[in-house]
Specification:
The chain has about 260 residues and is an alpha/beta fold. Helices cover about 40% and strands about 15% of the residues. The termini are far apart. It binds 1,4-dihydronicotinamide adenine dinucleotide (NAI).
């Protein structure tokens, strides 16, 4: 158990919590005292290892469960939030589940576009709605943190539909911060290139990784999932009690 527990008594739902950024967010939250619902289409981490909810149970004093959830299915999203009732009801929602792409704009199909928007944008929209209804109906104040990207701040030629979805999340966050104040704070984290299974799929030539990070990233290294998790922890906790409608960029200086 950590010395100071920033999320003591909180109940979190983390979508995409089986792997990568979401896994680290879920583990960090549990170390800080939150009970966690890990909502993911997969139970096993993409990078391998023990499932997130089992690790939480083994390594922390927090409670955790896994819920099969495809965030592009509104019923699944509501069911994941409902599952948090087991721990007293959601107080922190992290809309993290996401997919990316590396493809030509001119060749992107309608199905590919729809899938991108359904998972990244619609998943975040209804994740926020389900959590907000649960918090308000239960008389609980809370916090929502949406995971956008530096691709929600500037364009990327081989990721036009990804940028569309992530830019949508940025504006959705601002609108929700207004719509849900003063009971619920809503913020976004915009990670840059982060070392997860998502980016190990060919974004950088494995033989020239060191040169790539040296050249492209002012801090000279890729982000790690704990860089994302620490930013989310700050926004989710009372440390950020006067912060809502904010975009926190965690990109090693790339967009500076
Ligand atoms: P990842 O691929 O390592 O993990 C994503 C997790 O989301 C997986 O466990 C996967 O099963 C789950 N998932 C995918 N589709 C889902 C769906 N429809 N419903 C529920 N769960 C689903 O990816 P990573 O890197 O951890 O990404 C997490 C978030 O961070 C995403 O929103 C991504 O766009 C964002 N991000 C990642 C960056 C990176 O460089 N890795 C940079 C900027 C943003």
């Amino acid at each position: 158990m950590a010395d100071s527990e920033l999320l003591e008594g909180e109940v979190a739902v983390v979508t995409g919590g089986a792997s990568g950024n979401g896994r680290e967010i879920a583990l960090t939250f549990a170390e800080e005292g939150a009970d966690v619902v890990v909502a993911d289409v997969n139970e096993s981490p993409r990078e391998g290892g023990v499932e997130t909810h089992r690790r939480i149970r083994e390594e922390t004093d927090a409670s955790a469960i896994h819920v099969d959830c495809d965030v592009s299915d509104v019923d699944d999203v509501y069911a994941a939030v409902e599952a948090a009732e087991e721990f007293g009801g959601v107080t922190v929602m992290v809309n993290n589940a996401g997919i990316t792409e590396s493809r030509s704009f001119l060749e992107t199909t309608e199905d590919e576009y729809d899938t991108m928007m359904d998972v990244n944008a619609k998943g975040t929209f209804f994740g926020s709605q389900a959590a907000a209804k649960s918090m308000l109906d239960g008389g609980r104040e809370g916090s929502i943190v949406n995971i956008s990207s530096t691709s929600g701040l500037r364009g990327r030629a081989d990721g036009v539909s990804y940028c569309t979805s992530k830019g949508g999340i940025r504006l959705m966050t601002y609108a929700l911060a207004d719509a849900l104040a003063p009971d619920i704070r809503v913020n976004a984290v915009h990670p840059g290139f982060t070392d997860t299974a998502m980016t190990r799929g060919g974004f950088v030539d494995p033989d020239s990784r060191a040169e790539f990070f040296e050249k492209e990233m002012p801090l000279g290294r890729p982000g790690q999932p704990n860089d994302t998790a620490n930013a989310v922890l700050y926004l989710a906790s009372d440390l950020a009690s006067f912060v809502t409608g904010h975009s926190l960029v965690v990109d090693g200086g790339v967009t500076a």
